[in-house]
């Protein structure tokens, strides 16, 4: 896939990996629509890249449908959809106050898993109607999981379950959409230097970075963005999950 000139949608584009991906795709010549629940952040990213910034709740079907309609009107149907929106709260199944509230678990599943599927289904429906590109494909959808899908830590039951669902969705969605010539891939990041991690005390950051075999540091959002580029450009990458983690395997806590 030649990225230049194509329409792209990036969720969670107000910060972190989503913002880095939006900037990178725009620099490669894509027409980028950025979606986020944070109005100020999404509009700031859009201004930086000369793209379209829209407030969107990925868990809400009508909100996502309106966003796709606006993106389609501005840039045409998207050939590229990148799911970066997500939440990562920590809570034990049984804590000092008793059982974890069911609504806490449900919210994480709704944002991370159902929200990703919501964008995937809408993007795939648009892509399936488009003409084939020279590469023989119609579009590419990339979801974001986490190493927690494989080594969820204590307090990550909801987060790990949501990201495990994305991993399981990958091959199924790729097979389902193969007849439409739409590829589906997933990236599973490890410790990435997003605002959440960089907001921790320095000694905590240093301790976490030391657990990465090599390189002994947090990953950078731009490294995620560059992997997105490679996936888009390599037509044989389909139906699989790529770990972006410096060979880390998470300990229980």
UniProtKB/TrEMBL annotation:
SMART domains: PKS_KR. GO terms for molecular function: oxidoreductase activity. This is SDR family NAD(P)-dependent oxidoreductase. Coiled coil: none annotated. Residues 6-195 form the Ketoreductase domain. The lineage of its organism: Bacteria, Pseudomonadati, Pseudomonadota, Alphaproteobacteria, Rhodospirillales. Signal peptide: none annotated. It holds the Pfam family adh_short. InterPro entries: KR_dom, NAD(P)-bd_dom_sf, Sc_DH/Rdtase_CS, SDR_fam. It comes from Azospirillum cavernae. Belongs to the short-chain dehydrogenases/reductases (SDR) family. Keywords: Oxidoreductase. It comes from the Bacteria.
């Amino acid at each position: 896939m030649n990225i230049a000139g194509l329409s792209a949608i990036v969720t969670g584009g107000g910060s972190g990996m989503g913002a880095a991906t939006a900037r990178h795709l725009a620099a490669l010549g894509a027409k980028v629509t950025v979606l986020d629940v944070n109005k100020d952040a999404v509009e700031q990213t859009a201004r930086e890249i000369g793209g379209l910034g829209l407030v969107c709740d990925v868990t809400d079907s009508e909100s996502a449908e309106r966003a796709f309609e606006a993106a389609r009107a501005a840039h045409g149907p998207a050939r590229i959809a990148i799911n970066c929106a997500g939440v990562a709260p920590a809570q034990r199944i049984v804590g000092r106050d008793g059982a974890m509230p069911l609504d806490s678990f449900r919210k994480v599943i709704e944002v991370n898993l159902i929200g990703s599927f919501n964008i995937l289904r809408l993007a795939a429906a648009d892509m399936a109607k488009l003409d084939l590109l020279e590469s023989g494909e119609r579009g590419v959808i990339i979801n974001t999981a986490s190493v927690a899908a494989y080594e969820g830590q204590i307090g990550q039951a909801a987060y790990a379950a949501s990201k495990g669902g994305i991993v399981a969705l990958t091959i199924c969605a790729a097979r389902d959409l193969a007849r439409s010539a739409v590829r589906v891939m997933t990236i599973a990041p490890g410790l990435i230097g997003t605002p959440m991690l960089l907001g921790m005390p320095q000694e905590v950051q240093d301790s976490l970075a030391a657990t990465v075999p090599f390189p002994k540091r947090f990953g950078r959002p731009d490294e995620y963005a560059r992997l997105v580029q490679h996936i888009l450009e390599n037509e044989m990458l389909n139906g699989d999950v790529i770990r972006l983690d410096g060979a880390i395997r998470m300990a229980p806590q």
